[in-house]
Amino acid sequence: MVFKNSIDLYKKAVELVPGGVNSPVRAFKSVNREAPIFVKKGQGAKIWDEDNNEYIDYICSWGPLILGHNHPKVIEEVKKIIENGSSYGLPTKYEVDLAELIVEIVPSVEKVRLTTSGTEATMSAVRLARAYTQRNKILKFEGCYHGHSDALLVKSGSGLLTEGYQDSNGITDGVLKDTLTLPFGDIEKVKEVLKSKDVACVIVEPIPANMGVIETHKRFLQELRKITEETGTILIFDEVISGFRLALGGAQEFFGITPDLTTLGKIIGGGYPVGAFGGKKEIMDLVAPVGRVYHAGTLSGNPIASKAGFATISYLKKNPNIYKELEEKTNYLIDNIEILAKKYSINVCVNSMGSLFTIFFIDIDKVENLKDSLKSNTKNFSIYFNTMLENGIVVPPSQFEAHFLSMAHTKKELNRTLEVIEMAFKKIGEKSGK
Ligand SMILES: Cc1ncc(COP(=O)(O)O)c(C=O)c1O
C-alpha cells in the first residue's frame, strides 16, 4: 500500500498545526507510524484516503456514525435544508424537533440544552450540578474521559492515556483540588467520599470506553444511584458515547437506572458537531436565561447538525432491531477473535458492550478498570494496528479506545476483518516466539 499523499499532507500539517492534527489520537503516534492517513471520503462501512486506499472502518468518527458513512436518509434530510443557510444565531425548528425526540427517548431527560460538542455538554452539566447543590467538589473515575474542560482532565482517558499521561498541564491547583478521582467500580470508596456530603456530582461513563471498553457491572451503577440519592449528590451519566448506541435510550435504558443529568453528543449530531445536556426540569431550569447558570454558543443547536441528528435518531427509532443486529455482529467478531487468539497462543482479553469492543493484549481474564487496562502490551497492539491498516482495515490507533461497529458493516466485511486479524495474531505470536 502506498501512503505518499497522506505523508506529504502530514509533513505540511505539522508545520501549521501542533502535531499536524486537530485531536491528538489522530496523529497515530502511539502506533509508531510515520504519518496518519488523511481521509478523502466515506461510504457505508468504508473510508478512502488521499492515496485512494480503501479501508473497512472501525472508528466510525469515534461513534456518531452508527448508521455508517453517508447514510442516504441522513443525507436526504440534510440536503433539504443545506441550501437555505448554515446558521442564524436565532432559534430554528430543527433544534426543537431534536430536543423533542431526545426528551421522548432518553429516560432521565425532561429538558435538554444543545451544545456544539460533548466537552461543552459535560462542562456545563458539572457547572449546573455545582449551582444546584451549592457544593464545589466533583467526583470522576480514573480512565473515564469527559472531554477537555479543566475540571474533567484529571486522571483522564482517551488521548491522554494514548500519549502516556493522565493529567493535562495548564490546570490550576484550585481546580485540581476540587476534582476527586476513584477507581471505576470501587463503590466502597465512593461511599466513603460521599459521606461528607460536600460533593456536587458524580460523573461517570456508564460504559467506560476511553480506557478501552470496560464491561460495567449493573450493581455498581445501582449502588452509585443509591448513594448519590442518599447524599444529595447529582449523578451525571456521560452518555456521549453510549447514548443511542447501547440501546435507543442509552445505558440508562439498558440498565434501567435514571441519573439526574445526562450528557450526550456524537450520534445526536449524525456526524455533525453537536452535544447536549439534559435532565430533571427542576435542575435544567437553573440554566440561563431562566436561571443564572450560564451556557451559550454561537453554533449551539446548529440547524444542519440538528437535522442530521434528528434523521439518525428517527431512523434508529423506526428500526429497533438495529441494536440486536449490532450486538450479534460484535459477538461474531469477538467469538472468532478469541478462537484466533487461542490458535496463535496470544494473550488477549476482549471486552465488549453492545456494538463497542476493545481487544486488550493482556494476560488477565477481565479488564475491570484503569489499573488493569494499563497492563496491556501496547507493542502487540501496535503490531495489530499496523497489520490491520496495511491490509485495508482501520481500527482505533490506540489500545485505550473502542472499536465502533455500524449498521453498514456486512458479514463479508466482518469475515475480511477476521482474516486480517489472523494475520496480525500470527505476527504477534511469531514475535513473542510462540
Ligand atoms: C464519554 C465522552 N464524553 C465526552 C466526550 C467529549 O466529546 P467531544 O469530543 O464532542 O468534545 C467524549 C469524546 O470522545 C467522550 O467519549
From TrEMBL:
InterPro entries assigned to the protein according to its UniProt record, in alphabetical order: 4pyrrol_synth_GluAld_NH2Trfase, Aminotrans_3, Aminotrans_3_PPA_site, PyrdxlP-dep_Trfase, PyrdxlP-dep_Trfase_major, PyrdxlP-dep_Trfase_small
Substrates-to-products reaction catalysed: (S)-4-amino-5-oxopentanoate = 5-aminolevulinate
Subcellular location: Cytoplasm
E.C. designation(s): 5.4.3.8
Cofactor(s) the record lists: pyridoxal 5'-phosphate
Gene3D superfamilies xref list: Aspartate Aminotransferase, domain 1, Type I PLP-dependent aspartate aminotransferase-like (Major domain)
Predominant subcellular localization, coarse grouping: cytoplasm
A Pfam family assignment: Aminotran_3
GO cellular component, as recorded: cytoplasm
Keyword Lipid metabolism part of the UniProt annotation: no
CDD domains per UniProt: OAT_like
Keyword terms: Cytoplasm, Isomerase, Porphyrin biosynthesis, Pyridoxal phosphate
PANTHER family the record matches: GLUTAMATE-1-SEMIALDEHYDE 2,1-AMINOMUTASE, GLUTAMATE-1-SEMIALDEHYDE 2,1-AMINOMUTASE 1, CHLOROPLASTIC-RELATED
NCBIfam families for the chain: hemL, PRK00062.1
Subunit structure: Homodimer.
Similarity comment text for this entry: Belongs to the class-III pyridoxal-phosphate-dependent aminotransferase family. HemL subfamily.
Protein name per UniProt: Glutamate-1-semialdehyde 2,1-aminomutase
Recorded name of the encoding gene: hemL
